[in-house]
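Weekly modeling sync, notes
Attendees: S.R. (lead), two postdocs, one rotation student

Agenda item 3: backlog of single-chain predictions. S.R. asked that every request posted to the team notebook include the full sequence so nobody has to chase files. The rotation student volunteered to paste the first one in as an example of the format we agreed on. Action items at the bottom.

Example entry:
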Amino acid sequence: MKKIGMLGVSMVGLAMAVSACGSNDNSAENAAPAASGTASASSATTASASTAASGGDPVTIKVFQLKVEIADKFEAMVKEFEAEHPDIKVEAETVGGGTGYMDALKAKFAAGEGPDIFNNGGAKEMQLWKEHLADLSDQPWVSHLLPGTGDGMKDTDGKLYGMPMNMEGYGYLYNKDLFTKAGITELPKTLTELQAAAQKLKDAGITPFANGFAEWWIIGSHFTNVAFGQQSDPAAFIQQLNDGTATIPDNAVFKQFQNLMDTTIKYSNDNPLTTDYNTQVTLFASGKAAMLQQGNWVEGMIADIDPNLSYGILPMPINDEATSDRIVAGVPNNWAVNKNSEHVEAAKTFLDWMVSSPAGQKYMTEQFGFIPAFDNIPTDKLSQLSQDIVAYSKEGKTIPMIWTSWPDGANKEFAAVLQEYSAGKIKWDEVLKKMQESWNNLK
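Predicted structure, as returned to the notebook:
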């Protein structure tokens, strides 16, 4: 039986993140390479400890991360860490998420140059990389994890192999001023209401959607996730697909999923199939499109273009039922420590500092715009968008991030099929048939 990993953050946990302030793209397709012949974790600990005790040169830990949105701010945070820990230097390298990041990570490990700290999506991806992951179960921050936030990096042995990077939520970001200009007074909660809003925007000479369909993770992971997350029991549905008792073509939710796809295509920006992530966000941030399928991770990019842009978040409805009024929320990625690093303890020190020190906590919420996965981090400085995401979760209006439980490579194949459909090359029944074939071949 295939292990189903974390399906999303406990809604109680997200609510706790808000109340705490009062008291104070990566997928499982990317199999890990074989372990490189470096020092063991025990020898790494000894080496790191002896260096610090002898007052010798600082040790250097290498961090390989995929959040391009926070790259500059991450470097600034590193300087503050180094000022407090002169015995540890941090070299950070950022490569964009998805295939580029994972291919580069695999290449590093294959060359025997695996970083000390790297990102892991959890669930199936955690299993694929487990031979490289250090056990973090005894770390100080573990007791502060919000309910459910560590599940994606827990194995059947009960050990925890990663620290949640953050919690995120996504749906359709919307430009409040453009909605007002188009005469939209009620925010859309259903598919029919979303279509009506898109038509009003179009009639007002405003492009409704900025679609970045050139990026496989936008359409193949995040967009397709809606059809999985809207199942009555997402985990059970995935298990049924794995054991053959359910199919995608026969699933009512996937049939309705066409409605959302057709709506975004009809009211799209020009050339969505050649629009990449940066262009997509720029279209929205510059006021050239009213809606954007993304989440709170784009806030820094938007602020760089228009720091005064007023925007919020909407659901991605596939029908007119009340259950369509939900956004996607969960832990999208984690920090992992290379158990064969020569500086395991130094790497653990850096991770703990990020979530335990005042400086690290400030960067997480105020600079990175992260919704923290820990109850010891104040959330009173969260952005308005993050507060909107929290509000949805408090009301129980979320569906889980579940793509890390799909078969290896499924999200890229789903993207290719939906790109074909967007180009008008295939019909929807063929979309569902091809998605099922991908699942059967990859599971």
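Discussion: group reviewed the output briefly. Residues 25-167+332-377 form a domain with the D-Maltodextrin-Binding Protein; domain 2 fold (CATH 3.40.190.10).
Action items: rotation student to repeat for the remaining queue; S.R. to check formatting next week.
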